[in-house]
Amino acid sequence: MNRRAFLAGSTSAVAVGLSGCLGILNTGGDTESGDFDVGMGSSFFEPRKLEVTVGTTVVWKNTGMRRHTVTAYENSLPDGAEYFASGDFDSEAAARDAWRSGYGGTIHQGKTYEHTFEVPGTYDYFCVPHEVSGMAGSIVVTE
């Protein structure tokens, strides 16, 4: 067998195979698509930090294959800001309890959650089941 022909064919096969695997592993989402602002991968938000203006509705989309939540750190909200969490809980404790007692607030693969930010400031948030892995983000709202 011609060694060059064999190597060229092998390289092409490996490249095609890897491109398929990389497509499966791409859990960061296509943030250029415009249908969401923040993607959720295996244990990360992308982008981790997003800056928007007052009155903006931010859309999070589960672009990965695991269950996620979007849960505000209640003690870090700007004064006068509304609490937010997927599942529409009114406190961080309620969101944590709901997750522990039956996965409340889950955003399943391909699904979205949205919240409109009306007060300027920094909003820190996290994913309940992946908080220990560092899955956290922040929304910076400016006037």
Quick structural summary:
By secondary structure, the protein is α/β, with parallel strands linked by helices.
Order of helices and strands: HEEEEEHEEE
User: Which outline best applies?
Assistant: globular
Mean pLDDT, all residues: 84
Can you name the CATH architecture? Sandwich
Gyration radius (Cα, Å) is 20 Å
How many β-strands, per DSSP? 8
Largest sheet: 4 strands, mixed
Report the CATH superfamily. Answer: Cupredoxins -  blue copper proteins
Helical residue percent?
10-25%
What structural class do the secondary elements suggest? Answer: alpha/beta
Question: What is the name of the CATH topology?
Answer: Immunoglobulin-like
Physical arrangement of strands within the biggest beta sheet: 2-1-4-6
Please mark out the parts with pLDDT under 50 across 5 or more consecutive residues, or reply none. Answer: 3-32
Q: Helix segment count?
A: 2
